[in-house]
Amino acid sequence: MQKLKITEMQRISVEEFRSSHKLPLVVVLDHVRSLYNVGSVFRTADAFRLSGVCLCGITACPPHPEIHKTALGAEDSVQWKYYEKTEDALSELRNQGYTLLAVEQCKGSTMLQQFVPDADKKYAVIMGNEVKGVQQQVVNMCDGCLEIPQFGTKHSMNVSVTAGIVMWHFAQSFLLKE
Fold it and tell me: Is the peptide bond before 63 cis (omega within 30 degrees of 0)?
């Protein structure tokens, strides 16, 4: 096997990305404090051609060197919007027809592997603060909760890792079946 060179990867331009068909998924970052996590979410959102990212509360916005360090320019391709209050982002997304799903450990949550996205729906997944998770008032606004099963001694994962797992789950359901 031979590794591909960058020139062999057939990458699209930022302009081509912006005009391309997108996965009907938006990631909402609810008070995410690490700029590296924000950048990583942008980079993964670019990889799976998400519809967008909502940055809420204390979540930092581009341009910022620490976001760029992990986003590697994805903050320029992925559509994003800042909201002072996460609840405002969710209200706007609901009005646009999105189904709202918190990614959180909740009573009655659906395990991610059991969740099958409906191809006729648009989804917004809410990722919470690295310490406190998704705010309860935000969970209360959601249509449901998704949970990633965990089998070790810890009961949490890094927010950018969690976001990547969830984005991949949606990509498998939508993009890979085209």
Answer: yes
What is the C-alpha to C-alpha distance for residues 127 and 34, in angstroms, rounded to an integer? Answer: 13
Domain coverage including residue 155: 21-177
77 within 8 A of 14, measured Cβ to Cβ: yes
C-alpha 71/C-alpha 10 separation (Å) is 19
Cα dist from 123 to 1, 2, 97, 155, whole Å: 38, 38, 8, 25
Taking only the tens place, the pLDDT of each residue in 45-102 is 999 999 999 999 999 999 999 999 999 999 999 999 999 999 999 999 999 999 999 9
**What CA–CA distance (Å, rounded) separates 10 from 19?**
16
Backbone angles phi, psi at 110, to 5 degrees: -100, 130
Q: Count up the domains in the chain and report the number.
A: 1
Give whole-number Cα distances, 137 to 10, 75, 147, in Å: 43, 28, 18
Please compute, for residue 171, the number of CA atoms within 13 A of its CA located in the half-sphere on the CB side: 14
The per-residue pLDDT for range 122-143, each reduced to its tens digit, is: 999 999 999 999 999 999 999 9
List, as own/partner pairs, every contact residues 151-157 make where C-beta atoms lie below 8 angstroms and the sequence separation is at least 24, other chains included: 155/105
Q: What is the pTM of this model?
A: 0.96
151: domain CATH number is: 3.40.1280.10
Q: Is residue 176 predicted with pLDDT exceeding 70?
A: no
